Amino acid sequence: MSEYAKNKPAGFKNAIEKVAIVGAGGTIGSHLVSALLKSGRHTVTALSRKDSSNKLPDGVHVAPVDYSDESTIVEALKGQEFFIITVSPTAPRDTHSKLVQAAAKAGVPYIMPNSYAGDIEQVQLGIDTLTGPPAKANREEIEKLGMQWISVCCGFWYDYSLAGGESRFGFDFDKHTLTIYDDGQTKNSVSTLAQVGRAVAKVLSLPLFPQDENDKSLTISSWFNKAVYLKSFVVNQNEIFESVKRITGTTDADWTVTHENTKQRYEEGMALVKKGNMSGFGKQLYSRAFSPEDPSNCAAKAQNELLGLPEEKLDDATNDGIELVKELQKRPERMSS
Asked: CA 49 to CA 67: how far, in whole Å?
């Protein structure tokens, strides 16, 4: 049954104003915070370890928590209207569940789970890469506890994946080497970190519910227990390589290029993961996503136009990715996809 703003009690604000986030200083979290602040419509509260050295932007409220003490998380989340979770894949496995349970106890109605990746409806890809089942379990737990979720389907983060080493888009900028999957022609839909931030801020800046049954305008409730779909580009590795050469002023002669079979590379990565060596995780994830039979491409579902997201230029994003290489070398890895 549809909910309408007209049926809400007196004093009801038909908007999300108070947003809490875990991982505000991380790779994706920092872009979400930046976009939310830029919208001017939200009070952003960052849950942060008491001993954290993360520098957060001006305007962010910091709520110090002890993640081993649930009561501190519950206290930090009281009064919050939307909770964004971004956590590292290296975080303890029960981290997400602890955060969701604390949010339920604090009375937070809506959650964005830690899933900023490919299409949640592309089930086999999720199973093959080990990402689908835990993400599905996270969404089901949110619903079971009486809350609603909005997930983000954006594909790989373009700039981060370009900067993230050979196991991702295949580039090692220090050694000037490139590993191309198969013939490099398989396309993925990908999004820049900034575009993900913009999409989330756009959704959370909409009215919460339609005013009444005649109100057909876009609302946050349109996405309850669904995913927001977006993209920046639909590209293959060969196109990325051409962009890299343009930005760096290099030619084929400056790079050592090797080709690897995606199926074989996936199996090698998965074998490492099964031995407990997580260096194989990125290897199996990206090679499987670039599999020609079932690539990660949700471009057909992208809601860019609906959300008024800007068109981006590939070379600009490539330049950002190359700049990010230097930044990643300076800090420990914090990512959520």
From this structure: 7
- Other CB atoms within 10 A of residue 113 CB: 25
Per-residue pLDDT reduced to its tens digit, 149-178: 999 999 999 999 999 999 999 999 999 999
Q: For Cα atoms 93, 152, 81, give the angle at the middle one, nearest 5 degrees.
A: 80
- 69's CB contacts (< 8 A; 6+ apart) are none
**Out of 55-59, 202-206, 253-257, least confident range:** 55-59
pTM > 0.90: yes or no: yes
* SS3 of residue 332 by DSSP: coil
> Residue 174: which residues within 8 A CB-CB, separation 6 or more?
none
Quickly tell me which residue has 């990125």 as its tokens. 282
CB 31 within 8 A of CB 192: no
* Residue type, position 323, single letter: E
Helix (H) or strand (E) holding 330: helix 314-330
Cα distances from 229 to residues 5, 117, 145, 200, 257, in angstroms, run: 25, 10, 25, 10, 33
Ramachandran region, residue 40 (left: φ > 0; alpha: ψ -120 to 50; beta: rest)? left
Task: Say how many residues make up the chain.
Answer: 337
Calculate the average pLDDT of the chain. Answer: 95
Task: For 111-137, write each residue's pLDDT tens digit.
Answer: 999 999 999 999 999 999 999 999 999
Q: Which residue has the higher pLDDT, 23 or 329?
A: 23
Distance separating the N- and C-terminal Cα atoms of the chain: 34
Residue 114: closest CA among 23, 202, 48? 23
**Contacting residues for 282 by C-beta, under 8 A, at least 6 apart:** 164, 165, 167, 168, 269
